[in-house]
Specification:
By secondary structure, the protein is α/β, with parallel strands linked by helices. The chain folds into three domains: 1-80 and 278-306, 3-Layer(aba) Sandwich (Rossmann fold); 84-269, Rossmann fold (3-Layer(aba) Sandwich); 308-387, 2-Layer Sandwich (Alpha-Beta Plaits), CATH 3.30.70. It is built from 14 helices and 16 strands. The protein has helices spanning 12-15, 66-72, 84-99, 102-114, 119-126, 147-158, 172-177, 188-194, 214-218, 237-246, 259-263, 278-298, 330-340, 369-376; strands at residues 2-6, 23-26, 34-37, 53-56, 75-77, 139-143, 162-166, 183-185, 197-200, 224-228, 249-254, 267-269, 318-325, 345-353, 356-363, 381-386. A seven-stranded parallel sheet has the order 8-7-6-9-10-11-12, with helices on both faces. It has a five-stranded parallel sheet with strand order 2-1-3-4-5, sandwiched between helices. Helix 3 packs across helix 6 (147-158).
Length: 387
Protein backbone atom coordinates (compact mmCIF):
# COMPACT_ATOMS: atom_id res chain seq x y z
CA UNK A 1 0.00 0.00 0.00
CA UNK A 2 1.36 3.40 -1.03
CA UNK A 3 0.56 6.48 1.05
CA UNK A 4 -0.08 9.66 -0.95
CA UNK A 5 -0.52 13.00 0.79
CA UNK A 6 -2.49 15.71 -1.00
CA UNK A 7 -1.34 19.22 -0.10
CA UNK A 8 -4.09 20.94 -2.12
CA UNK A 9 -7.41 19.98 -3.60
CA UNK A 10 -6.51 17.70 -6.50
CA UNK A 11 -9.09 17.08 -9.24
CA UNK A 12 -10.97 13.83 -8.69
CA UNK A 13 -10.20 12.60 -12.19
CA UNK A 14 -6.53 12.58 -11.20
CA UNK A 15 -7.03 10.85 -7.87
CA UNK A 16 -8.98 8.15 -9.68
CA UNK A 17 -5.70 7.12 -11.33
CA UNK A 18 -4.52 5.85 -7.95
CA UNK A 19 -6.42 2.57 -7.22
CA UNK A 20 -7.98 2.43 -3.76
CA UNK A 21 -6.78 -1.14 -3.22
CA UNK A 22 -3.13 -0.07 -3.37
CA UNK A 23 -3.13 3.64 -2.53
CA UNK A 24 -4.18 5.52 0.60
CA UNK A 25 -4.77 9.11 -0.54
CA UNK A 26 -5.73 12.22 1.41
CA UNK A 27 -4.57 15.35 3.21
CA UNK A 28 -4.36 13.49 6.52
CA UNK A 29 -2.05 10.75 5.28
CA UNK A 30 1.18 10.34 7.26
CA UNK A 31 4.51 8.68 6.45
CA UNK A 32 3.76 9.36 2.81
CA UNK A 33 5.53 7.72 -0.10
CA UNK A 34 4.41 10.49 -2.41
CA UNK A 35 2.95 13.99 -2.38
CA UNK A 36 0.50 15.56 -4.84
CA UNK A 37 0.61 19.35 -4.69
CA UNK A 38 -0.49 22.41 -6.61
CA UNK A 39 0.39 25.76 -4.99
CA UNK A 40 1.04 24.80 -1.34
CA UNK A 41 4.49 25.91 -0.18
CA UNK A 42 6.69 23.00 0.89
CA UNK A 43 9.88 24.85 1.78
CA UNK A 44 9.27 24.46 5.51
CA UNK A 45 7.48 21.13 5.30
CA UNK A 46 9.29 18.33 7.19
CA UNK A 47 9.71 15.55 4.63
CA UNK A 48 9.41 12.07 6.20
CA UNK A 49 12.06 9.43 5.49
CA UNK A 50 9.40 7.47 3.60
CA UNK A 51 8.94 10.15 0.92
CA UNK A 52 10.17 9.22 -2.57
CA UNK A 53 8.39 11.56 -4.94
CA UNK A 54 6.54 14.88 -5.18
CA UNK A 55 4.30 15.55 -8.18
CA UNK A 56 3.34 19.16 -8.85
CA UNK A 57 0.07 19.52 -10.76
CA UNK A 58 1.40 22.39 -12.82
CA UNK A 59 4.59 23.52 -14.53
CA UNK A 60 6.29 25.82 -12.00
CA UNK A 61 7.98 24.32 -8.93
CA UNK A 62 8.92 27.51 -7.05
CA UNK A 63 6.89 26.23 -4.09
CA UNK A 64 9.06 23.10 -3.76
CA UNK A 65 12.62 23.07 -2.35
CA UNK A 66 14.12 21.13 -5.26
CA UNK A 67 17.72 21.37 -4.01
CA UNK A 68 16.72 19.95 -0.65
CA UNK A 69 14.78 17.20 -2.40
CA UNK A 70 17.73 16.30 -4.60
CA UNK A 71 20.03 15.91 -1.61
CA UNK A 72 17.45 13.69 0.07
CA UNK A 73 16.85 11.56 -3.03
CA UNK A 74 13.27 12.81 -3.51
CA UNK A 75 12.20 13.03 -7.15
CA UNK A 76 10.20 16.15 -8.06
CA UNK A 77 7.84 15.97 -11.03
CA UNK A 78 5.89 18.65 -12.86
CA UNK A 79 3.32 18.52 -15.64
CA UNK A 80 4.66 20.47 -18.63
CA UNK A 81 2.07 21.10 -21.31
CA UNK A 82 -0.91 19.93 -19.27
CA UNK A 83 -2.16 23.50 -18.85
CA UNK A 84 -0.70 24.84 -22.09
CA UNK A 85 -4.00 25.34 -23.91
CA UNK A 86 -5.55 27.23 -20.99
CA UNK A 87 -2.59 29.60 -20.76
CA UNK A 88 -2.48 30.02 -24.54
CA UNK A 89 -6.10 31.17 -24.58
CA UNK A 90 -5.49 33.67 -21.79
CA UNK A 91 -2.43 35.02 -23.63
CA UNK A 92 -4.60 35.74 -26.66
CA UNK A 93 -7.09 37.45 -24.34
CA UNK A 94 -4.25 39.46 -22.79
CA UNK A 95 -3.03 40.56 -26.21
CA UNK A 96 -6.48 41.95 -26.93
CA UNK A 97 -6.78 43.56 -23.51
CA UNK A 98 -3.38 45.18 -23.95
CA UNK A 99 -4.42 46.54 -27.37
CA UNK A 100 -7.91 47.83 -26.80
CA UNK A 101 -8.91 49.19 -23.40
CA UNK A 102 -11.75 46.74 -22.96
CA UNK A 103 -11.40 46.72 -19.17
CA UNK A 104 -11.43 50.50 -18.93
CA UNK A 105 -14.34 50.74 -21.36
CA UNK A 106 -16.44 48.25 -19.41
CA UNK A 107 -15.73 50.08 -16.14
CA UNK A 108 -16.64 53.41 -17.76
CA UNK A 109 -19.99 52.05 -18.96
CA UNK A 110 -20.82 50.83 -15.44
CA UNK A 111 -19.81 54.21 -14.00
CA UNK A 112 -22.12 56.02 -16.42
CA UNK A 113 -25.05 53.84 -15.43
CA UNK A 114 -24.27 54.32 -11.73
CA UNK A 115 -24.26 58.10 -12.18
CA UNK A 116 -27.80 58.04 -13.55
CA UNK A 117 -26.90 58.80 -17.15
CA UNK A 118 -28.70 56.96 -19.93
CA UNK A 119 -25.88 54.74 -21.15
CA UNK A 120 -27.21 54.37 -24.69
CA UNK A 121 -27.04 58.16 -25.12
CA UNK A 122 -23.37 58.56 -24.12
CA UNK A 123 -21.50 55.52 -25.41
CA UNK A 124 -20.92 56.89 -28.93
CA UNK A 125 -19.34 60.07 -27.55
CA UNK A 126 -17.31 58.32 -24.87
CA UNK A 127 -15.92 55.33 -26.73
CA UNK A 128 -13.03 57.21 -28.35
CA UNK A 129 -11.17 57.18 -25.03
CA UNK A 130 -10.79 53.41 -25.25
CA UNK A 131 -9.62 52.99 -28.84
CA UNK A 132 -6.69 50.69 -29.51
CA UNK A 133 -4.93 48.94 -32.42
CA UNK A 134 -5.83 45.64 -34.04
CA UNK A 135 -3.55 42.61 -33.77
CA UNK A 136 -3.83 41.95 -37.51
CA UNK A 137 -0.55 42.62 -39.36
CA UNK A 138 1.26 43.50 -36.14
CA UNK A 139 4.37 41.64 -34.98
CA UNK A 140 4.46 39.41 -31.93
CA UNK A 141 7.69 38.38 -30.24
CA UNK A 142 7.45 35.10 -28.29
CA UNK A 143 10.25 34.66 -25.75
CA UNK A 144 10.38 30.95 -24.94
CA UNK A 145 9.06 28.34 -27.39
CA UNK A 146 8.12 25.51 -25.08
CA UNK A 147 4.68 23.92 -24.82
CA UNK A 148 2.86 27.23 -24.24
CA UNK A 149 5.05 29.53 -26.32
CA UNK A 150 4.76 27.29 -29.38
CA UNK A 151 0.96 27.25 -29.15
CA UNK A 152 0.84 31.03 -28.77
CA UNK A 153 3.14 31.53 -31.74
CA UNK A 154 1.08 29.28 -33.97
CA UNK A 155 -2.28 30.78 -33.07
CA UNK A 156 -0.91 34.31 -33.50
CA UNK A 157 -0.16 33.45 -37.11
CA UNK A 158 -3.80 32.52 -37.59
CA UNK A 159 -4.74 35.97 -36.29
CA UNK A 160 -2.75 37.49 -39.13
CA UNK A 161 0.26 38.48 -37.02
CA UNK A 162 3.90 38.19 -38.00
CA UNK A 163 5.67 36.14 -35.34
CA UNK A 164 9.25 36.14 -34.10
CA UNK A 165 10.36 33.46 -31.65
CA UNK A 166 13.40 33.08 -29.40
CA UNK A 167 14.50 30.10 -27.35
CA UNK A 168 18.18 29.24 -26.74
CA UNK A 169 17.16 25.75 -25.59
CA UNK A 170 14.73 24.95 -28.39
CA UNK A 171 14.26 21.18 -28.51
CA UNK A 172 13.67 19.14 -31.63
CA UNK A 173 10.14 18.29 -30.46
CA UNK A 174 9.36 21.96 -29.82
CA UNK A 175 10.79 22.98 -33.19
CA UNK A 176 8.59 20.44 -34.95
CA UNK A 177 5.51 21.97 -33.28
CA UNK A 178 6.24 25.40 -34.76
CA UNK A 179 4.66 26.62 -37.97
CA UNK A 180 7.32 27.14 -40.63
CA UNK A 181 6.29 30.79 -41.02
CA UNK A 182 7.52 31.68 -37.52
CA UNK A 183 10.84 33.54 -37.66
CA UNK A 184 13.07 31.92 -35.02
CA UNK A 185 15.92 34.28 -34.12
CA UNK A 186 19.15 33.55 -32.28
CA UNK A 187 19.33 36.89 -30.46
CA UNK A 188 16.72 38.56 -28.29
CA UNK A 189 17.73 41.96 -29.66
CA UNK A 190 16.32 41.02 -33.07
CA UNK A 191 13.03 40.00 -31.51
CA UNK A 192 12.81 43.18 -29.43
CA UNK A 193 13.58 45.46 -32.37
CA UNK A 194 10.84 44.00 -34.58
CA UNK A 195 7.99 43.32 -32.15
CA UNK A 196 4.91 45.41 -31.47
CA UNK A 197 4.00 42.93 -28.74
CA UNK A 198 6.29 40.77 -26.59
CA UNK A 199 5.01 37.80 -24.60
CA UNK A 200 7.11 35.86 -22.09
CA UNK A 201 7.05 32.06 -21.72
CA UNK A 202 10.12 31.32 -19.63
CA UNK A 203 10.66 29.45 -16.36
CA UNK A 204 11.75 31.63 -13.45
CA UNK A 205 15.30 31.01 -12.25
CA UNK A 206 18.35 33.07 -11.41
CA UNK A 207 19.38 33.26 -15.09
CA UNK A 208 15.95 34.53 -16.22
CA UNK A 209 15.28 36.95 -13.36
CA UNK A 210 14.61 40.47 -14.69
CA UNK A 211 14.76 39.34 -18.31
CA UNK A 212 12.72 42.45 -19.02
CA UNK A 213 14.67 45.36 -17.56
CA UNK A 214 15.61 48.89 -18.62
CA UNK A 215 18.26 47.67 -21.08
CA UNK A 216 15.87 45.22 -22.74
CA UNK A 217 13.05 47.77 -22.92
CA UNK A 218 15.37 50.32 -24.54
CA UNK A 219 15.86 47.90 -27.44
CA UNK A 220 12.11 47.60 -28.06
CA UNK A 221 9.85 49.69 -30.26
CA UNK A 222 8.26 52.78 -28.76
CA UNK A 223 4.76 51.89 -27.60
CA UNK A 224 5.49 48.17 -27.27
CA UNK A 225 2.93 46.12 -25.37
CA UNK A 226 4.19 43.45 -22.94
CA UNK A 227 2.44 40.25 -21.85
CA UNK A 228 3.69 38.24 -18.88
CA UNK A 229 1.63 35.22 -17.91
CA UNK A 230 4.73 33.18 -17.05
CA UNK A 231 6.30 34.44 -13.79
CA UNK A 232 6.33 37.82 -12.08
CA UNK A 233 10.09 37.86 -11.43
CA UNK A 234 10.86 37.82 -15.15
CA UNK A 235 10.11 41.55 -15.25
CA UNK A 236 11.85 44.25 -13.21
CA UNK A 237 8.98 46.26 -11.75
CA UNK A 238 10.96 49.49 -11.27
CA UNK A 239 12.16 49.56 -14.87
CA UNK A 240 8.75 48.58 -16.22
CA UNK A 241 6.85 51.25 -14.27
CA UNK A 242 9.31 53.91 -15.47
CA UNK A 243 8.73 52.73 -19.06
CA UNK A 244 4.96 52.82 -18.61
CA UNK A 245 5.11 56.36 -17.21
CA UNK A 246 7.28 57.56 -20.10
CA UNK A 247 5.11 55.88 -22.73
CA UNK A 248 7.90 53.64 -24.00
CA UNK A 249 5.69 50.69 -22.98
CA UNK A 250 2.07 51.30 -23.95
CA UNK A 251 0.57 48.55 -21.81
CA UNK A 252 1.60 45.70 -19.54
CA UNK A 253 -0.72 42.72 -19.07
CA UNK A 254 0.31 40.39 -16.28
CA UNK A 255 -1.02 37.44 -14.32
CA UNK A 256 1.21 38.32 -11.35
CA UNK A 257 -0.06 41.56 -9.81
CA UNK A 258 1.24 43.42 -6.80
CA UNK A 259 0.23 46.71 -5.20
CA UNK A 260 2.79 48.79 -7.11
CA UNK A 261 1.83 47.37 -10.49
CA UNK A 262 -1.90 47.79 -9.89
CA UNK A 263 -1.33 51.46 -9.12
CA UNK A 264 0.81 52.03 -12.22
CA UNK A 265 -0.68 53.44 -15.46
CA UNK A 266 -1.67 51.17 -18.33
CA UNK A 267 -1.45 47.90 -16.42
CA UNK A 268 -3.94 45.07 -16.95
CA UNK A 269 -3.56 42.95 -13.83
CA UNK A 270 -5.15 39.50 -13.67
CA UNK A 271 -5.35 37.28 -10.55
CA UNK A 272 -3.14 34.42 -11.81
CA UNK A 273 -5.82 32.98 -14.05
CA UNK A 274 -3.50 31.30 -16.56
CA UNK A 275 -4.27 27.68 -15.72
CA UNK A 276 -7.56 28.31 -13.95
CA UNK A 277 -9.85 26.20 -16.09
CA UNK A 278 -11.49 22.92 -15.10
CA UNK A 279 -9.93 21.25 -18.13
CA UNK A 280 -6.44 22.40 -17.15
CA UNK A 281 -6.84 21.31 -13.54
CA UNK A 282 -8.03 17.89 -14.70
CA UNK A 283 -5.15 17.52 -17.15
CA UNK A 284 -2.56 18.49 -14.57
CA UNK A 285 -4.02 16.19 -11.91
CA UNK A 286 -4.12 13.19 -14.25
CA UNK A 287 -0.58 13.77 -15.47
CA UNK A 288 0.82 14.26 -11.95
CA UNK A 289 -0.92 11.14 -10.61
CA UNK A 290 0.27 9.05 -13.56
CA UNK A 291 3.87 10.22 -13.12
CA UNK A 292 3.86 9.47 -9.40
CA UNK A 293 2.24 6.08 -9.85
CA UNK A 294 4.65 4.97 -12.58
CA UNK A 295 7.58 6.01 -10.42
CA UNK A 296 6.37 4.29 -7.25
CA UNK A 297 5.29 1.08 -9.01
CA UNK A 298 7.92 0.81 -11.76
CA UNK A 299 10.70 3.22 -10.88
CA UNK A 300 10.25 5.15 -14.12
CA UNK A 301 10.96 8.88 -14.04
CA UNK A 302 9.10 11.13 -16.48
CA UNK A 303 9.07 14.94 -16.35
CA UNK A 304 11.33 15.34 -13.33
CA UNK A 305 12.86 18.75 -12.67
CA UNK A 306 15.71 17.52 -10.46
CA UNK A 307 16.57 14.03 -11.74
CA UNK A 308 16.99 12.65 -15.27
CA UNK A 309 14.10 11.11 -17.16
CA UNK A 310 14.64 7.36 -17.17
CA UNK A 311 12.16 4.76 -18.47
CA UNK A 312 12.77 1.03 -18.89
CA UNK A 313 10.49 -1.91 -19.60
CA UNK A 314 10.27 -4.40 -16.73
CA UNK A 315 12.26 -7.64 -16.91
CA UNK A 316 13.70 -10.04 -14.35
CA UNK A 317 12.11 -10.70 -10.98
CA UNK A 318 13.03 -7.51 -9.13
CA UNK A 319 14.07 -3.96 -9.94
CA UNK A 320 16.64 -1.91 -8.05
CA UNK A 321 16.10 1.85 -8.29
CA UNK A 322 19.27 3.68 -7.29
CA UNK A 323 19.51 7.44 -6.80
CA UNK A 324 23.15 8.46 -6.65
CA UNK A 325 25.64 11.20 -7.32
CA UNK A 326 26.96 11.67 -10.82
CA UNK A 327 30.50 10.50 -10.04
CA UNK A 328 32.80 7.90 -11.63
CA UNK A 329 32.62 4.16 -10.86
CA UNK A 330 29.13 4.05 -9.35
CA UNK A 331 27.75 1.77 -12.08
CA UNK A 332 30.80 -0.49 -11.98
CA UNK A 333 30.55 -0.73 -8.20
CA UNK A 334 26.86 -1.67 -8.37
CA UNK A 335 27.34 -4.43 -10.94
CA UNK A 336 30.47 -5.70 -9.22
CA UNK A 337 28.64 -5.90 -5.89
CA UNK A 338 25.72 -7.77 -7.47
CA UNK A 339 28.12 -10.19 -9.12
CA UNK A 340 29.88 -10.84 -5.83
CA UNK A 341 26.53 -11.70 -4.28
CA UNK A 342 25.65 -14.04 -7.15
CA UNK A 343 22.91 -11.85 -8.63
CA UNK A 344 22.56 -11.74 -12.43
CA UNK A 345 21.73 -8.44 -14.12
CA UNK A 346 18.92 -8.91 -16.67
CA UNK A 347 18.74 -5.29 -17.81
CA UNK A 348 20.05 -1.91 -16.71
CA UNK A 349 19.77 1.76 -17.63
CA UNK A 350 21.38 4.90 -16.29
CA UNK A 351 21.17 8.63 -16.92
CA UNK A 352 22.55 11.71 -15.23
CA UNK A 353 21.39 15.28 -14.73
CA UNK A 354 23.90 17.71 -13.31
CA UNK A 355 25.25 16.47 -10.00
CA UNK A 356 22.81 13.57 -9.76
CA UNK A 357 22.11 10.34 -11.59
CA UNK A 358 19.56 7.53 -11.58
CA UNK A 359 20.09 3.86 -12.31
CA UNK A 360 17.55 1.06 -12.68
CA UNK A 361 18.73 -2.54 -12.56
CA UNK A 362 16.48 -5.54 -13.27
CA UNK A 363 17.86 -8.66 -11.62
CA UNK A 364 17.22 -12.35 -12.27
CA UNK A 365 16.84 -13.44 -8.66
CA UNK A 366 15.48 -11.88 -5.47
CA UNK A 367 17.99 -9.76 -3.58
CA UNK A 368 18.52 -10.47 0.09
CA UNK A 369 18.67 -7.88 2.84
CA UNK A 370 22.47 -7.89 3.08
CA UNK A 371 22.78 -7.30 -0.68
CA UNK A 372 20.67 -4.17 -0.41
CA UNK A 373 22.79 -2.92 2.47
CA UNK A 374 26.00 -3.68 0.55
CA UNK A 375 24.85 -1.50 -2.35
CA UNK A 376 23.58 1.29 -0.07
CA UNK A 377 27.04 1.40 1.50
CA UNK A 378 28.78 2.04 -1.85
CA UNK A 379 30.34 5.49 -2.38
CA UNK A 380 28.02 8.01 -4.05
CA UNK A 381 24.76 6.16 -3.31
CA UNK A 382 22.01 8.42 -1.96
CA UNK A 383 19.01 6.07 -1.84
CA UNK A 384 18.05 2.60 -3.00
CA UNK A 385 14.61 1.13 -3.48
CA UNK A 386 13.71 -2.42 -4.48
CA UNK A 387 10.40 -3.04 -6.28
Amino acid sequence: MFNIKTMNKIAAVGLERLPADSYAVGDGVENEDGILVRSAKLHDYPFPDTLWGIARAGAGVNNIPTDKCSEAGIVVFNTPGANANAVKELVICALLLASRDVVGGAEWVKAQAASGVEVADVVEKGKSAFVGPELYRKTLGVVGLGAIGALVANVALSLGMEVYGYDPYLSVDAALRLDRHIKVVKELDALYANSDYVTLHLPYMESTKDTINAAAIAKMKDGVRLINLARGGLVNDDDLIAALESGKVACYATDFPNNRLVAAPHVVALPHLGASTPESEDNCAVMAANELRDFLENGNIKNSVNFPNVVMERSGVQRLCVIHRNVPAVLANITTQLSKDGVNVENMTNKSKGEYAYTMVDVGSPVEGHIIEDIRALPGIIRLRVI
